[in-house]
Design goal:
The protein is mainly α and about 270 residues long. Helix content is about 70%, strand content about 0%.
Length: about 270
């Protein structure tokens, strides 16, 4: 539980305790009914103080002084922390929206094409793509089921199938774009996407460090294949999450994403 919720819980418990003691005290010292005691308690700690009910006995007045000192601060603590939580949730929604915009730009510039390249290297592509032909009828439960399937699906990259020059030219050409994304501080709030970006950038660094891909020893080729596989797995999972976001928030973007689905060999941007 985060500190704000912990503080709110503490203040709420304390406030309920003060209210219970206050109601009991008014009933005992001022001979008030339960309803009058509760009413007196509320208007006191809320600093409303209508004046229609007030303490009569000396002990009652002393009790009200103690109640104001303890109850008002506790009541304001509850209000302040509840307000902070609401503002925090609003800020998180705004931040999440900004994050999804960044993720969308990534898939437009790099991600979707990188998926298309990766699936060409995967001999088990048909198994991975199973269920990834997304339609507008998909529900949240359907996305969850496919996500669970993807975590169990086989992912393989046959390094000998990789067109290293094509892959290197594409990714190295996007190096500056990836650097700008990694510099964005809001990415710290999205661990899975940050992991994906780091994996892609690492692959860029590996490829840019080699001058001739035709003379690579098998061990080095296998190493690069492992880097591609890491990116491939993270890409597929992030793509599925992003598709659900588009479906829920931006139907027109979702329509285009379905028609350019990198897992659908029959996909066409043309509306038919």
């Amino acid at each position: 539980m985060d500190p704000i919720h912990t503080r709110l819980k503490f203040y709420l418990i304390t406030l309920l305790g003060v209210m219970a003691v206050g109601v009991f005290g008014f009933m005992l010292l001022e001979q008030k009914s339960f309803i009058d005691a509760l009413y007196f308690m509320i208007v006191t700690i809320a600093t409303v103080g209508y004046g229609d009910i007030h303490p009569i006995t000396p002990l009652g007045k002393l009790f009200v002084i103690l109640l104001i000192l303890s109850g008002v601060g506790t009541f304001l603590g509850v209000i302040a922390n509840a307000t902070e939580i609401m503002l925090s949730r609003r800020e998180k929604r705004v931040l999440l929206e900004k994050l999804n915009m960044v993720i969308g730009v990534f898939f437009s510039e790099v991600g979707t094409k990188l998926i298309r390249l990766s699936v060409d290297y995967d001999p088990d592509f048909d198994e991975v793509r199973k269920g990834l032909i997304i339609t507008e009828k998909w529900t949240h439960q359907k996305f969850l089921e496919v996500s669970a399937h993807l975590r169990q699906a086989p992912y393989r990259v046959e390094a000998e199938k990789v067109n290293w020059n094509q892959l290197a030219d594409f990714l190295i050409g996007k190096r500056d774009f990836l650097v700008r994304l990694l510099e964005n501080p809001i990415l710290l709030e999205h661990e899975s996407f940050t992991d994906l970006l780091r994996a892609v950038f690492h692959l860029v660094e590996e490829l840019s460090s080699r001058e001739d891909f035709h003379t690579l020893p098998p061990t080095d080729t296998a190493h690069l294949g492992g880097d591609i596989k890491r990116v491939y797995i993270l890409l597929v999972r992030q793509w599925l999450d992003y598709m659900e976001h588009l479906k829920n928030s931006y139907p027109y973007l979702f329509s285009l994403a379905m028609r350019t689905n990198p897992f659908d060999r029959k996909a066409s941007v043309l509306v038919r």
